[in-house]
Amino acid sequence: MTAVPVVIVGAGPTGLTAATLLAQYGVECLILERWDSVYPLPRAVALDDEVHRILARLGLRDEFAAISRPHRGLRLVDRTMRVLAEFQRYPAKGRHGYPPGSLFDQPELEAILRRNLKKYGSVTLRGSTEVTTLIQDVDGVRLDVTDTVTGGHDVIRAGYVLGCDGANSLTRAAIGSTMQDLGFTQRWLVVDVVTEADLGQWEGVHQLCDPARAGTYMRVGKTRYRWEFPLKSGETADDYRDMTRLHPLISPWTGNIPAGEFTIVRAAEYTFRAQVADRWRDRRMFLLGDAAHLTPPFIGQGMGAGLRDAMNLAWKLAGVLDEALPETVLDTYEIERKQHTRAMIKLAKIIGTAMTAGGRVSHIIRRAVAPRLHLVPGLRELATDSQTPPLHRSDLVIRPRLRRTLAGRLCPNATVDGDRFDDVAAGRFAIVTSYEPSATQRADIERRGAVLITAEPGSELHQWLRTGGARVAIVRPDGTVLNAGRQLPACH
Ligand SMILES: Cc1cc2nc3c(=O)[nH]c(=O)nc-3n(C[C@H](O)[C@H](O)[C@H](O)COP(=O)(O)OP(=O)(O)OC[C@H]3O[C@@H](n4cnc5c(N)ncnc54)[C@H](O)[C@@H]3O)c2cc1C
Fold first, then answer.
1. Residue to mutate (ligand 1; options 34, 37, 89; most atoms within 8 A of CB)
2. What is the predicted pLDDT for the residue at 384?
């Protein structure tokens, strides 16, 4: 039986993103998905400009703009709606060319991801197909699948498997990996509501810090709103499917507008968890997205983390399949991504604790500490320019221990001769310099198939190199800086 080079289990946002990126590198892949269409329940609503940049790389710049709206940031408020802390996001373009924060509806995003995938002949999406067993041998993986409509069975062979199969991942079980609990489990009610009424609220994400009942509010679309509330013991989402029951919970935002003006689109219960899988890879099988990590959604990073995983792994895997890169580069995936994910989960937990911690002492601490949250390392960067932490040191992130460096950070998607950096680099290695390289160096860069970008004095990239104490940066195909320094490494 001929093996498909890459089989992706799960057509959620992570699987669809990984498939599109691999297709852009010409890799043939097959996605197997249990359901026949997009999963309709409300989930992700917020993403930052780093993740927006990934969507643009997939070719969805205009499509995503059409289904999303920029937001003004994150506010922590108390029960009187007094602002305790604010992380501002201006709706103008940020360092990557997109709004620093955007709101959207996950099923709509998945629909455009699926439509976009049809552009690539090298990808097949097989719906109504459940993977039931994964067995790995020396040169591939055998997948047993069941057609969920006919009940028929089939066997598929894969060169590599990407387990993008969500929180209850079969792939994770198959590689013998288990979730490590990072200490956060809460049941929450998630409700999407539509109304023509004008709520007159600040156009950002509100996190209500109230131990009696915390809450999250945001306006997702022109007439569409999202609320999330922790459920008390004995309560279920069923208790809030009627507007008369929900109305008192949302009244801090709706004021005197009567319940009749609102319609519940969907109300669901979710358990928010903080967990990271202990192993993300076993030889030819990888975990990505919710299969590898779960985060409480308080800083809107769960789905984003899955897209970051796909972006990190796709070019490495394509390079290995093309024999342009050694197989060992695949080891860097878990090293780089696990640490970043843990850091983001930690920040989400800090916000979650500020929202929900109970007792008088917590109340006093919250009032005193919340206004200073923007000073916490990690939150500080998120607060000021939506920048997430650098990737961990690996063979593909050369970070000296004692020197400030750009390595591990994303190169800004700056304007280069009227185009954006990503359009110029087009998924290849890029060398960004603030000086003219020699003819030999130019020839070497060209020979390696990399792109040379010479940053003009005064340009955004020139300034970026300068603030990072560098004159040259080697930028990987996923936009991450591999190495940065004063001069180009010697040619071999
Ligand atoms: C209430 C809520 C709010 C959220 N808010 C945000 C937010 O604002 N921002 C953000 O970034 N994230 C947010 N998230 C998280 C986000 O929704 C998830 O992280 C994201 O859906 C994960 O995508 P995924 O593709 O990894 O997994 P999933 O979306 O779970 O997709 C996995 C897919 O695999 C399929 N599958 C599973 N097993 C098999 C099998 N054996 N065979 C075939 N197919 C299989 C499933 O059917 C599914 O389609 C939120 C989540 C919740 C619950």
1. 34
2. 58
Pocket test for ligand 1, best of 303, 308, 344, 386 (most atoms within 8 A of CB): 303
Ligand 1 atom at shortest distance from the alpha carbon of 188? 1
pLDDT in the model for residue 383: 59
Cβ atoms of 39 and 110 within 8 Å: the answer is yes
**CA atoms of 291 and 173, how far apart (whole Å):** 10
Q: Ligand 1 atom 18: the closest Cα is on which residue?
A: 303
**Radius of gyration of the chain from Cα atoms?**
23
Query: Is the beta carbon of 94 within 6 A of some atom in ligand 1?
Result: no
pLDDT at 376: 66
Atom 9 of ligand 1, residue of closest alpha carbon: 300
Rounded Cα–Cα distance for residues 9 and 175 (Å): 14
Task: Give the residue, by CA position, lying nearest to ligand 1 atom 5.
Answer: 44
Phi, psi (degrees; rounded to nearest 5) at 139: -115, 20
Tokens representing 220 are: 């997702």
pLDDT tens for residues 420-433?
A: 999 999 999 999 99
Residue 433 C-alpha to ligand 1 middle, in angstroms? Answer: 40
List the domain boundaries for the chain: 415-485
C-alpha closest to that of 159 among 280, 284, 310: 284
Pick from 290, 313, 382 the residue to mutate for probing ligand 1's pocket: most ligand atoms within 8 Å of its CB: 290
> Which one, of 230, 272, 217, 253, lies nearest residue 74 by Cα?
217
* Contact status, residue 416 vs residue 464, Cβ threshold 8 Å: no
| Residue range 63-75: mean pLDDT, rounded | 92
Q: Which CATH class is domain 415-485?
A: alpha beta
Distance CA 206, CA 331 (A): 39
- Percent of the chain exceeding pLDDT 90 equals 81
Q: Record the pTM.
A: 0.95
Q: At 339, phi and psi to the nearest 5? A: -65, -40
Confidence of residue 91 (pLDDT cuts 50, 70, 90): low
pLDDT tens by residue, 251-299:
999 989 999 999 999 999 999 999 999 999 999 999 999 999 999 999 9
Mean pLDDT of 348-367: 71
User: How far is ligand 1, taken at its centre, from the CA of residue 490, in Å?
Assistant: 45
